[in-house]
């Protein structure tokens, strides 16, 4: 066998936000790192998502991780020497008149979240419309998180990868890994073109492709590829500071929007589309665009005056319980996972990278990872 | 699929020369196509019709092409009520065997067994510093203003760029009584001599072209070749006041004008072919990516056909032929009898137009080297006001060398026009900066909607 | 300077119509596009969102999207492909940040 292209302390497969940030934080801990990306860094889920830097609405047990991530977001531009367009401009979750039961849920969530460092202000529909006059009459109430906000996903993961590279990480793009195995004390992974890479620690952050690698270690997971349903309007005068989303049990009603400082309004949500990891393609279904616009008009009627100029999607990996796989392997020592973030990984991404770096470097972390154990998908078989 | 054979659903997008001839061919074979066109009246851009209350005749509007324009218009008028004609309607996306339309009435879907895309072309642009000043228009715009609205784009118009349209529109302006400051062609005259071997394939068109140049000279319009545009002068409030150029002899000169018509031949509108998931290939001669197709117009995706300038820039006359050919290919694939001699005859004509087009590309080359020399402050992407310097910074600082990657980081091509007017030049700026061949930069992937779509849009028939 | 950017060369016998640009009445003709109506008497259509000055359209064939103008009631029109109609009220400036409250 040919000599490996690189031998390092840690190999990371998957150059999304999780892998790129883990690479940076591992370098900060003095570990040598090789980051392998099958395409270009941050091109799929990490680069095509809505860009919500949102803690509210996450499971309460995830808030410590989200708070850790928030601390990184707040210093992201200095950390990365790049502007990722992070705006701590607030986030509002609203519910509709026809689902008044959501108010009680919002109140309960706010009461509990306060103990985990997330302050939420509850507003009636009219109070909300006084402060944010773009909300439509269907909006019954809202929960405002002043410390949440949004950032530009197209720029973020690549900025982490460049920062990791400047800090000494080796980054290989267009490197599609087809085989991974532990040989003795080291992992040896092989790319499609025959190149190999070697390290005693392997971190798999391969998103929708994660299962292709985890199953090589006897740990298959039921991951489903889907794609976000995204649109963007023409630029209009900056008037909408917070990111906005709807709390509803109905997928089609689940829309959200945010205005970037340049003026464009990014619309997301309603029905997700299919995506095809093997072909590296994801398509926006036109019927989903139409459903999204209908829901957006309901949420913010003033947006009906505008035009959308582009739609897009990307490849995201969903797990049945909408929670990621994050933590050590149950079968193989030295193997770690962080993938399957099920459409809600962007805000926590830098926190995931820092937590995984801590776990790999010290063998432990203060973040509770019990909900994300990969073994939860193996229990049925045993 | 008996129904597909007995009563196939055929959709033609575009009602220019290619679309009109395709629709006629289908109708003659007993198929009633759906013809969807963005314009209010058929004819396309080249034979674009003026509003109904205008009075100029075909000769005044189309000159040497009057008879052809008239034939296309009359041909469509004769079948308009026999086909399912949907004017003022945009096809904004394609998925799962359906086109998605948008119009004042709302959105709708049309399912197809065969889809013939006759989407036409728009101007190909090379930026020049100052081209964002009010009063710079595309060459095609200058022509549309005259043909469709009886207006000149300014009181003293400078024509700059390259390609046959440069001379055609300038001479149309002279004929209509507009003042033309000068015609400044970036291609050296010697290229035309080298192109003669191919241009002779269409002697009549060549003769028309030579006559245009003579008419301009006779009118006293300065016509200069081998010119390098340096900047369009003016200011952000008042707009254009002229252009500074370097002449073939190396001297610099300023031409005063209150409008500049700028263009470098044409580029096909391939967004729908892209959304239909057709394969593309790089054409080295014209340095652009074009959808693959067979000689009859079959795209790489079964059931999709490409005709006219929307597939290859071969001109309006060729578009009429390739429109018929694409319709015949669709008919053959639907199991209808098609006369092989007709096919041979039409293919031969297209081949001749293709040879002529090759000659035009030699005579009036895309001046890609200008991209390398654009000053950093020159705007490349007019929609987003992204400069050549912004784009170069992204290439140098982030290593982005692929078109979509550079778009993601710099916003070049991310604006309202979706890269129509900056995509080609942006790729050249990246290639020159990264010192790689432009084909390695790739092409901007098409993304719906093909044109801006109102957030207010609802299904047809619904408020 | 009040001279228009576009110069009418023919077809001047059409019926007149009046629309309003930045509050001022503008006389155009039936069959004009909104763009021609505005530029036959004015110099610009809109202001670029990104600080690079005034714009007056570019392609005239509904491809470049450089001629979208605001109506006074917050609507959006593509001037080159919209027929001019009597009573239209157009602003060549962007609305203020209060646009989302427009009904």
Question: How would you characterize the overall build of this protein?
Answer:
The complex is a heterotrimer of chains A (382), B (463) and C (103). Chain A is an alpha+beta fold and 382 residues long. Chain A folds into two domains: 6-47 and 154-222 and 320-377, FAD/NAD(P)-binding domain (3-Layer(bba) Sandwich); 91-146 and 229-313, D-Amino Acid Oxidase, subunit A, domain 2 (D-Amino Acid Oxidase, Chain A, domain 2), CATH 3.30.9.10. Helices cover 26% and strands 26% of the residues of chain A. Chain A is built from ten helices and 24 strands. In chain A, strand 10 and strand 11 (186-191) form a beta hairpin. Chain A is globular and about 65 Å long. Chain B is an alpha/beta fold and 463 residues long. Chain B folds into three domains: 2-122 and 267-336, FAD/NAD(P)-binding domain; 125-264, 3-Layer(bba) Sandwich (FAD/NAD(P)-binding domain), CATH 3.50.50.60; 369-441, BFD-like [2Fe-2S]-binding domain (Arc Repressor Mutant, subunit A). Chain B has helices at residues 2-6, 17-28, 58-62, 66-79, 139-149, 164-176, 190-199, 203-218, 271-275, 316-333, 340-363, 369-373, 388-398, 403-410, 423-434, 438-441, and strands at residues 10-13, 34-36, 84-86, 90-95, 98-103, 106-111, 114-117, 121-123, 136-138, 151-152, 157-162, 180-185, 223-224, 228-235, 239-246, 252-256, 259-264, 266-268, 280-283, 288-291, 304-306, 379-381, 386-387, 453-454. Chain B has a five-stranded parallel beta sheet with strand order 3-2-1-7-21, with helices on one face. In chain B, strand 1, helix 2 (17-28) and strand 2 (34-36) form a beta-alpha-beta unit. In chain B, helix 6 (164-176) crosses helix 8 and helix 10 (316-333) packs antiparallel against helix 11. Chain B is globular. Chain C has a domain at 24-93: Ubiquitin-like (UB roll), CATH 3.10.20. In chain C, 6% of the residues lie in helices and 27% in strands. Chain C is built from one helix and eight strands. Chain C has one helix spanning 34-39; strands at residues 7-8, 16-21, 24-29, 46-47, 54-55, 68-71, 76-78, 89-91. In chain C, the strands form two sheets. A five-stranded mixed beta sheet of chain C has the order 3-2-8-6-7. A two-stranded antiparallel ribbon of chain C has the order 4-5. In chain C, a hairpin with a 4-residue loop joins strand 6 and strand 7 (76-78). The longest helix of chain C is centred in the middle third of the chain and has 6 residues, at 34-39. The model of chain C has no long low-confidence stretch (mean pLDDT 93). The interface between B and C is large, with 55 and 42 residues. Strand 21 of chain A pairs antiparallel with strand 24 of chain B, so a sheet runs across the interface.
């Amino acid at each position: 066998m040919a000599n490996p292209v690189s031998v390092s302390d840690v190999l990371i497969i998957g150059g999304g936000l999780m892998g790129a940030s883990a690479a940076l934080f591992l370098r900060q801990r003095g570990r040598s790192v090789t980051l392998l990306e099958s395409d270009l860094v941050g091109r799929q889920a990490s680069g095509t998502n809505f860009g919500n830097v949102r803690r509210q609405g996450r499971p309460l047990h995830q808030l410590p991780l989200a708070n850790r991530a928030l601390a990184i977001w707040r210093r992201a531009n200095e950390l990365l020497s790049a502007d990722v367009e992070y705006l701590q401009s607030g986030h509002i979750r609203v519910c509709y008149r026809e689902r008044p039961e959501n108010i009680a849920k919002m109140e309960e969530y706010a009461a509990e979240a306060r103990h985990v460092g997330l302050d939420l202000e509850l507003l009636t529909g009219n109070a909300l419309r006084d402060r944010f006059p773009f909300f439509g009459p269907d909006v019954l109430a809202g929960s405002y998180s002043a410390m949440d906000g949004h950032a530009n996903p197209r720029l973020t993961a690549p900025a982490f990868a460049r920062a990791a590279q400047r800090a000494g990480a080796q980054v290989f793009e267009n490197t599609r890994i087809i085989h991974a195995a532990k040989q003795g004390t080291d992992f040896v992974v092989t790319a499609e073109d025959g190149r190999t890479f070697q390290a005693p620690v392997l971190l798999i952050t391969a998103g929708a492709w994660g299962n292709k690698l985890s199953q090589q270690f006897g740990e298959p997971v039921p991951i489903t590829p889907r794609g976000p349903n995204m649109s963007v309007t023409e630029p209009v005068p900056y008037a909408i500071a917070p990111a906005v989303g709807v709390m509803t049990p109905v997928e089609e009603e689940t829309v959200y929007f945010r205005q970037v400082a340049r003026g464009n309004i990014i619309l997301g949500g309603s029905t997700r589309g299919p995506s095809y990891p093997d072909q590296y393609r994801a398509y926006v279904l036109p019927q989903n665009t139409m459903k999204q616009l209908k829901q957006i008009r309901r949420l913010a009627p003033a947006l009906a005056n505008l035009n959308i100029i582009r739609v897009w999607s990307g490849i995201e990996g969903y797990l049945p319980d909408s929670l990621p796989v994050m933590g050590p392997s149950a079968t193989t020592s030295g193997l770690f996972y962080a993938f399957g973030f099920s459409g809600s990984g962007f805000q926590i991404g830098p926190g995931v990278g820092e937590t995984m770096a801590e776990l790999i470097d010290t063998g432990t972390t203060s973040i509770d990872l019990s909900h994300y154990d990969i073994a939860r998908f193996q229990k049925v078989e045993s | 699929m008996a129904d597909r054979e007995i009563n196939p659903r055929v959709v033609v997008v575009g009602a220019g020369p290619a679309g009109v001839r395709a629709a006629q061919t289908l109708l003659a074979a007993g198929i009633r196509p759906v013809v969807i066109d963005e314009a209010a009246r058929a004819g396309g851009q080249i034979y674009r019709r003026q509003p109904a209350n205008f009075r100029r005749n075909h000769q005044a509007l189309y000159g040497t092409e009057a008879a052809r324009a008239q034939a296309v218009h009359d041909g469509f008028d004769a079948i308009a009520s026999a086909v399912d004609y949907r004017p003022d309607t945009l096809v904004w996306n394609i998925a799962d065997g359906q086109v998605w339309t948008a119009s004042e009435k709302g959105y709708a879907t049309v399912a197809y067994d065969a889809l013939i895309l006759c989407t036409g072309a728009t101007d190909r642009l090379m930026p020049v510093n100052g081209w964002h000043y009010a009063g710079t228009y595309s060459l095609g715009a200058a022509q549309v203003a005259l043909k469709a609205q009886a207006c000149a784009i300014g009181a003293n118009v400078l024509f700059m760029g390259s390609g046959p349209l440069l001379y055609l529109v300038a001479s149309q302006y002279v004929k209509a009584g507009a003042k033309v400051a000068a015609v400044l062609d970036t291609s050296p005259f010697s290229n035309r001599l080298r192109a003669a071997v191919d241009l002779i394939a269409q002697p009549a068109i060549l003769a028309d072209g030579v006559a245009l140049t003579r008419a301009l000279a006779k009118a006293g319009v300065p016509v200069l070749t081998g010119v390098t545009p340096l900047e369009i002068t003016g200011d952000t409030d008042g707009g254009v006041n002229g252009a500074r150029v370097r002449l073939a002899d190396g001297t610099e000169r300023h031409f005063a004008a209150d409008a500049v018509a700028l263009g470098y031949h044409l580029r096909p509108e391939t967004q729908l072919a892209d959304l239909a998931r057709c394969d593309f290939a790089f054409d080295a001669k014209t340095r652009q990516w074009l959808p693959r197709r067979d000689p009859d117009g079959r795209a790489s995706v079964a059931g999709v056909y490409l005709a006219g300038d929307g597939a290859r820039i071969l001109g309006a006359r060729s578009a009429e032929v390739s429109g018929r050919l694409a319709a015949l290919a669709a008919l053959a694939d639907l199991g209808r009898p098609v006369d092989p001699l007709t096919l041979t005859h039409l293919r031969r004509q297209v081949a001749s137009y293709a040879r002529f087009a090759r000659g035009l590309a030699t005579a009036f080359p895309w001046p890609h080297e200008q991209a390398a020399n654009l000053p950093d402050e020159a705007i490349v992407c007019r929609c987003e006001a992204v400069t050549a310097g912004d784009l170069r910074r992204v290439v140098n600082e982030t290593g982005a060398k692929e078109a979509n990657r550079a778009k993601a980081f710099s916003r070049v091509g991310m604006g309202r026009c979706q890269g129509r007017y900056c995509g080609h030049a942006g790729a050249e700026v990246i290639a020159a900066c990264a010192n790689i061949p432009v084909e390695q930069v790739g092409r901007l992937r098409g993304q719906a909607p093909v044109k801006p779509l109102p957030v207010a849009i609802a299904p047809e028939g619904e408020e | 300077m009040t001279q228009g950017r576009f110069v009418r060369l023919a077809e001047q016998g059409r019926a007149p119509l009046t629309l309003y640009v930045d509050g001022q009445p503008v006389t155009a003709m039936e069959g004009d596009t909104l763009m021609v109506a505005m530029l036959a008497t004015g110099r610009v259509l809109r202001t670029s969102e990104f600080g690079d000055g005034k714009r007056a359209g570019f392609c005239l064939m509904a491809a470049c999207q450089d001629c979208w103008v605001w109506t006074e009631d917050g609507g959006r029109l593509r001037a080159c492909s919209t027929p001019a109609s009597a009573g239209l009220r157009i602003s060549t400036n962007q609305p203020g940040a209060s646009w989302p409250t427009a009904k």
